[in-house]
Amino acid sequence: MAALQSIRKRGGLLIGIIGLGLLAFIAGDYFKSAEILTNNKRQKVGEIFGETLKYPDYQEKVDELTEIFKFMKMTQGQGNTLTDEEQDQVRVQVWENFKKNVVLSKEAEKAGIKVTEDDIKNALNLGQANSLQLLARIFTNPQNYQFDVTKFQAFLKEYDTNVTNMMRQGQTEAVDQYRQIKRVCDYSLEQLRNELLEQKVYMLAAQSIISNKVIAKYEFDKRNILTDANVACIPYATVADKDVKITDADLKAAYKAHKDLPFFRNLSKSADLSLIDVQVVPSDTDRAALEQEMAAIQNQLSAGEDVATVVNGSKTVYPYVNLAQSKKAFEQMPDVAEALDAMAVGSVKPVYYNEQDNTYTTLKLIDKIQAPDSVQYSSIFAVAQTPEESKLLADSIMTALQGGAAFDELAKKYGQTGDTTWVSSAQYEGAHIAMDDATFFTALNTLPVGFHRLSLSQGDFIINIVSKKNVVTKYNLAVVKCPLQFSKQTYNKALNELNRFLANNHDVNSFVKNAAKAGYVIQPVDAYAQSNLQIQLGIGGSRTKEAFKWVFDEAKPGQVSNIYECGRDNDHLLVIGVRNINKDDVLPLENQGVRTYLTQLVKREKKQAILQERLKAVKEFAQATQQPGVLTDTLKDQTLYSFATMQPVGVHETKVSGAISKLQKGQKSGAIYGAAGVYYVEVTDKHNGAETYNEATEKQGIVSRLMQTLISQSPYGGAQEVLLQRLMYQKGDVEDFLYRF
Prior knowledge:
Layout: H1 2-9, H2 11-42, E1 44-48, E2 51-54, H3 55-75, H4 84-111, H5 117-126, H6 133-138, H7 149-168, H8 172-207, H9 213-224, E3 225-235, H10 248-258, E4 270-279, H11 284-302, H12 307-312, E5 325-326, H13 334-340, E6 348-354, E7 359-382, H14 387-402, H15 407-413, E8 421-424, H16 435-446, E9 450-456, E10 459-483, H17 488-503, H18 508-514, E11 523-529, H19 534-539, H20 542-553, E12 564-566, E13 572-582, H21 592-614, H22 621-624, E14 631-638, H23 654-662, E15 672-673, E16 677-688, H24 695-712, H25 722-731, E17 735-736
Antiparallel strand pairs: 1-2, 1-17, 3-14, 3-16, 4-11, 4-13, 5-10, 6-7, 7-8, 7-10, 9-10, 12-13, 15-16
């Protein structure tokens, strides 16, 4: 009872304590939810039509497409690594593919369009789809060099069995290559399905465009009736700029009248920026230091020191490969290829600077031989449980071959095909190949036709050289090609100077105003959108992404960023001043690009009004030719669909085309207010063209032209697939955070 009484006395306090406890519990759940939401937002690469691409899925697709790109390069003899620019292209392509596929699936679903297995089968048999062109490099019909669907289907059917056999034999490298081909197959099939779906969507759009015989005859007549005309133009430029006064009220009125134009659209959040991008370059001291290093390397090569040690111990971008290669191997270094014929075996070319690739170079010609450009061979990999057993196996195979055993039968006995294949110089030359590979290709080049045993670090090979053809000159060449780069001291000097400038210019106004005095160039960038990666792709480097994360996630108008050290070669110092953040669907009047556009528009309208007053008494062509500043020209074979362009003016004038088309021979127009000036027209001749009217052809041509317009012309930049682009940005509620990734 005493305890109960005590509780009653302190009831208010206890209720407060319990309330605080409940509040803490609820708040804890709230903050956990907020944290989850924040993490989800950070994981979002983008969203369209309510479908989200999250980072794990995005990265998986990036990894997949990266492997595809690597394979493409490898098949072209360009190695199997991507440059930073290529990796950037992969990232952008994954996001673009996602957006396009979402739009396609939405539109196809609404229209009841599907891609069937029969569609896929027919496309594979035809082999002409864009999506199959990569596969055509792998599964090629030797007679027509087109995609071979039979080889492709056999690969897929036998894939699991072949991988199991290769793993059992320890052929890990072959397994990796086989799996890479499988990834290419899976990706190409996915792209093929999307390509066919896109074709069906556009086919449906094309079927909705119709023509009739009335419009067909009208268009034919307007195109086939040709007109010659004399044209006079009094350009707006004849009115001096000082005679035109433009006020803020004029700009506001023009903005209100024209802000619905595509030019003013702000399709995603954007920012008006002012950039300082300092590219650090080598100093005279850096140049002198490299010249001294290269002179020492030249002396070492001339003294006969070990070539591989000297070359690979330098800063060369072309490591030494102990392999004779044809001149084509050096085509990407024209200065090196050009020097080859003038060099004697054993000679060293003195150090020289090559401005085209900004390198200092010296060369030593180790050997020059005559060798086949292509070799046909087959091989057996002698592999057993231990190296010793592998050598015994190789001895056994060689003994059997020397005793008359069939090579292909022996290969099958040891779980290999023994198939012959041709290898050409182009397949391996110019690449940074491993020592074993260099030894292998040297053997193919130099050993005679017949059976040979070749010991490599990975094991013993028995090779059967079957045939050789196309003997060419090959060069064993040591190339020391070292880029001229800035030193740490040079870089730090540029960094410190820029830091001192920023210390005295904190806000964007002083940043822009004082840049030129300090020796910096301001780059104005208007309406730079979240989805625009032009600067990032141009400069590159991970810190560029950090810069634009700051712009779009943190920055406020008027702020100036810290220095971002970026660039693919770590040679850029980037500072960003934010003039404005544009969040609305339409760019504001304050946007510099908008103001410039409207200023030119208002200036033209005011000059037009001045000329209109000045030319009140001018009624036709002859009078116009007497006006100050007039330009004249004769236009031949004009139609309604011509781009009437006076050579002295150089502007397409659709209004002039329309007037010429309407006038009869001998008729003259009044004033025509065009884009570049006031025009007067006098028609001198009208005659029929050489075309013959065909109603069916004409109707089909109209449909094709309208369809092509739908595909290739757009206010969004003239990109292909305009229909999909319009759907994306007008209805898709696109959120684009690719700049973060």
